[in-house]
Amino acid sequence: MRSRLSEPHADASPIRRRLTHRYLGLAGILILALVSAAAARAGSSVGGLRTIQVASMGEGNDAAALRARIVEQLKKSGRVRTVEDAAAADLILRGSSGIWATGTVTLHPRSKAEAETIFQGYLSLELVDRANHTTLWSYLVTPSRFHTGSITDDLADHAVVRLLDALASGAAGGPSAAAAGAGAQTALHGAGSTLAAPLYLKWFESSGVTVTYDAIGSEAGVEQLAAGKVDFAGSDMPLTAPGPSVALHATQFPAVTGGVVPIYNLPGLGRSLRLTGQLLAGIYSGAIRKWNDPRILEANRGAHLPDAEIAVVHRSDGSGTTFVWTSFLSLSSPQWKSSVDTGARVDWPVGAGAEGSNGVAELVEKTPNSIGYVELIYAIQHELNYAAVRNPAGQFIKADLASITAAASGANIGSGDLRISILNAPNRDAYPISTFTWLLVPEHGLSAEKRAAIADLLEWALTAGQKQCSSLGYAPLPHEIVAKELEAAHAMK
After folding, report:
1. CA-CA-CA-CA torsion for 255, 261, 265, 269, nearest 10 degrees?
2. Cα–Cα distance for residue pair 472/188, rounded to 1 Å
3. pLDDT for 23 beyond 50
4. pLDDT, tens digit, for every residue of 39-60?
5. Does residue 172 sit in helix, strand or coil?
6. Helices (H) and strands (E) in the chain, counts
7. What is the tens place of the pLDDT at every residue in 77-95?
8. How many CB atoms are located within 10 Å of the residue 463 CB?
9. CA separation for the pair 160, 152 (Å, rounded)
């Protein structure tokens, strides 16, 4: 049974085999240098040795190898002390993982014996305070662009680098307390975004506030909020976007940063696909119909793309993910902007529709030669390949926590307006289809108890909750945005 990454204890069930990738020779040296540098930074800022128990990295065949490598690298750093007994530790590092084959590549076309299997995978981590079980830090590690040796070593080594950096910088400090007061007594009902739903469901289980959340899509969630059927909505569209949100009087709180990725199912492709906004607009408009179209081949020189029709998949319901996707296509292509434009729903020129992000992922998963779009976590959950996308700096960037964080870091909030877009962020390392997602709270109609409960929930999500989001591939909000939001949340009480 294929794993689904819902929390760090999920069963990954990866394939057990010798894990090798194509690599550049300097990559291993670079990883060791990063580990050493991170260890030095940790030693300069952490008073005394932290005692860490490295718990399970999942239940799959490769989880034990990942755990062993993490323990080995932490011991080499000399900056933390690892123990086997959780009762002797002050910190617990736990996780889940998955590794799967995506294809093969032949280094010498005349010798099939020298074919190498290409792997993809993830390592999801949480650092937990043993005394109060609160999350201090989290991260989702995905494979490096270039690495030596095994994918297990690559994932584990980069996990150690990130952990030591977090300890050194104080990012793994004590979290805020769980929500209490009115939040502990008053039940809330929300609905909307599927893009952020995996994180919201995790948050609402941890916050101390009783919350029911229906992942029905941004458009339907906003409609229910406008009709007074829910207490708050999750939306990936700012209030200025076309649709029912225009007439809604609500305060919007950026909750987290995510990335929408082009997922694809190309059996046998031995490398990661590279796409531009213009190519994606051409595919979704029907102007580009085959995978071996010269325009796609130009961006993927040396790739063996099939002479096959592209099976286009899109959302059939009103979707904030669609709003983000079509907004990016409109920015990339004047033809798309003039003929299709942007929205939670559009008149798709080609393709088959599926309901919800899971529906899109499942349809791509079972349809050879298909392409679709989902938030990053859904691609990982369904073990699907996703393409690198060219950003305004001309770099082909594959979505990960670092590239999504880079997009958010350039957000201009000088005016105080939090309805901002970070699509096509100018940062050289930014993933171009990155977005904030919002929680919408009505300005009128809520009881004092529910307003206080929502304020408690927001304050928790903007502090302790931000420490949980990275394990699922969402990037924490910039500190400047969090500061403004906490002021607004406090004013609700």
Report:
1. -130
2. 24
3. no
4. 444 433 334 578 999 999 998 8
5. coil
6. 15, 17
7. 999 999 999 999 999 999 9
8. 15
9. 12
Indicate whether 102 pLDDT > 70: yes
Closest by Cα among 136, 129, 126 to 86: 129
Rounded to whole angstroms, the Cα distance separating 11 from 57 reads 9
What do you get for the CA distance between the two ends of the chain, in Å?
Answer: 46
Q: Are 388 and 272 in contact (CB under 8 A)?
A: yes
Query: How many other CB atoms sit within 10 Å of the CB of residue 130?
Result: 16
Q: Which two tokens stand for residue 170?
A: 């104080």
Task: Estimate the crossing angle of helix 277-285 against helix 320-332, to 10 degrees.
Answer: 110
Instruction: For residue 9, give both structure tokens.
Output: 């204890």
Q: For residue 14, how many other CB atoms are within 10 A of its CB?
A: 27
What is the crossing angle of helices 63-77 and 151-169, to 10°?
40
Amino acid letter, 228 = G
Q: How is residue 105 written in tokens?
A: 């590549």
Best-predicted range by mean pLDDT (9-18, 237-246, 325-334): 325-334
Q: pLDDT digit string (tens) for 344-363?
A: 999 999 999 999 999 999 99
Write down the H helix ranges in 124-194: 151-169, 182-185
DSSP state letter for 178: P
Helix (H) or strand (E) holding 362: helix 356-366
d(CA 376, CA 120): 14
Among residues 20, 123, 128, 55, which one has the least CA distance to residue 468?
A: 128
**Alpha carbons 23 and 85: distance in angstroms, whole number:** 37
Q: Which of 199, 196, 7, 4 is nearest to 98 (CA)?
A: 4
Helix (H) or strand (E) holding 461: helix 448-461
| DSSP one-letter string for 236-304 | SS-TTSSSGGGG--EEEEEEEEEEEEEEEE-TT--S--EE-HHHHHHHHHTS--BTT-HHHHHHTTT--
Beta bridge partners of 250: 442
Nearest by Cα to 152 from 6, 40, 31:
31
Q: What are the beta bridge partners of residue 442?
A: 250
Q: Classify residue 14 as left (phi > 0), alpha (psi -120 to 50) or beta.
A: beta
Determine the Cα–Cα distance for residues 290 and 286; give it in Å rounded to an integer.
10
What type of residue is 229? K
CA 299 to chain CA centroid, Å, is: 25
Say if residues 477 and 256 touch (Cβ distance below 8 Å): yes
Q: What tens digit of pLDDT does each residue of 377-420 get?
A: 999 999 999 999 999 999 999 999 999 999 999 777 665 667 78
Q: β-strands 370-375, 311-315: how paired?
A: parallel
Give the range among 22-31, 133-142, 418-427, 465-474 with minimum mean pLDDT.
Answer: 22-31
- DSSP 3-state of 325: helix
Encode pLDDT of 156-187 as tens digits: 999 999 999 999 988 776 544 555 554 568 99
